[in-house]
Amino acid sequence: MIDPQDRLLSEGQGYFGPRENPATQTHCNVWDWDQLRLIKVKGTAKLFPPQEDVETSILAQFADYLSPEVRAITVDDDGLLTGVSTDRKKMIQAFWISPLITLSITRRLPYRVDLVSYNDQRVAFKFNPLDKPRRLKMSWKETNLLSKLPPHPNLILFDRIVLEDVESRVIGFTTKYIPGGMLADDPKRPFRFEWLQQLTQLVDFLNLELGIMHQDIAPRNLLIDPDTDKIILFDFDWAANGKEGLMDGRDDVSGVVFTLHEIITNDTHPTSIPHWERNTDMVQNIEWTCRRELDSDVSKFRNFLDEWIASRTEKATEQHLNAPKRLTWPDLPTPPDYSVPFELGWTEEGETVWQTGGRSRRIALEKGQYCFRWQRPPQSRKKAESING
């Protein structure tokens, strides 16, 4: 089940007047990753100060009890519910379908991932319900990258593309499911020296042979495969291919340094610092207090890490940009033109006012046009139905 702290994500606050005025009407859009729907939380600037994300904790109190038709809630200055508003169309989606298989959800995981099953096998299904241009590009890149990565014992195994069954649009992909959870989930799990060796060898392979920079190496993106007892790196949505998508401060060498420091010390503060504000000296120049069981002395890990960093410093940039086995894939397709005429309203004489523009989901549903429906009931309700049924 999705951890409560990962379930809701605010897209920020919108103020209809001066934000310093406590009475200013404020609207906050909040994504519920459990139900895959966007809910607007309305109130005043007194309750919703900028950048504090109060709206997520307020919505968390009501999210499981709202009707699926609810698209917005209004709360008073104490955060108490005073009203709801709805659309005319239900948008429930409890499973995903491709033309060949039906994916049945077994468990909802964080970061837009579900554990699903088909043909008596379990796989991880990663999807992107956000239609924002940047997210679409990231999803397209990750899908193509994973499908083209050569087999490697420390990489997640790509399974298949998932399409919806009406217009055959790509809605995500599946990979091998590895049970046991992320390294970040279990700070008491013993860590082996060979796993550090595997991680650095993998980073060299990705960076220097394929020209791929993962750019998000962290304990939350590392697993230990119980079948092979090897470390596994996943989640490539921030990856760069050569110069394309390359960002300052997110190189994989730095990622390994901060990751090893967090694994050994269980200190998450350095990894919480924005990438553009941190450098490896913050952790390399201090003593590491070991708070995790290791199969070797901390000095062995640190000496190996220092030697690896020195070897990479001399050749990393040039070899990364001139990797001999660089992966390629087509550009993101141009989306269909959904600029269509729609009814904007009526004149005083009762004549329809037409406007041409981007077709919204609401307009499409009102006209009986097809839209893929992401929304689904909350996990808590599905569990209750399973118990009562």
CATH class wording of the largest domain: Mainly Alpha
Largest sheet: 6 strands, antiparallel
First-residue to last-residue Cα separation: 20 Å
Order of helices and strands: HEEEHEEEEEEHEEHEEEEHHHHHEEHH
Share of β-strand residues: 25-35%
Give the beta-strand count. Answer: 17
Q: State the domain count.
A: 4
Report a brief summary of the structure.
The protein is an alpha+beta fold and 389 residues long.
Task: Give structural notes.
It comes from Penicillium bovifimosum. One of its GO terms (molecular function) is ATP binding. It catalyses: L-seryl-[protein] + ATP = O-phospho-L-seryl-[protein] + ADP + H(+); L-threonyl-[protein] + ATP = O-phospho-L-threonyl-[protein] + ADP + H(+). Keywords: Chromosome, Telomere. It is an enzyme of class 2 (transferase). A 6-stranded antiparallel sheet has the order 6-7-8-9-11-10, with helices on one face. The chain has 4 domains: 4-86, no CATH class; 96-176, Phosphorylase Kinase, domain 1 (2-Layer Sandwich), CATH 3.30.200; 183-321, Transferase(Phosphotransferase) domain 1 (Transferase(Phosphotransferase), domain 1), CATH 1.10.510.10; 339-388, no CATH class. The relative contact order is 0.11. Residues 88-100 have low confidence and may be disordered. Helix 4 packs antiparallel against helix 5 (252-265) and helix 4 packs parallel to helix 8 (298-313). The chain is 28% helix and 25% strand. With 389 residues, the chain is an alpha+beta fold.
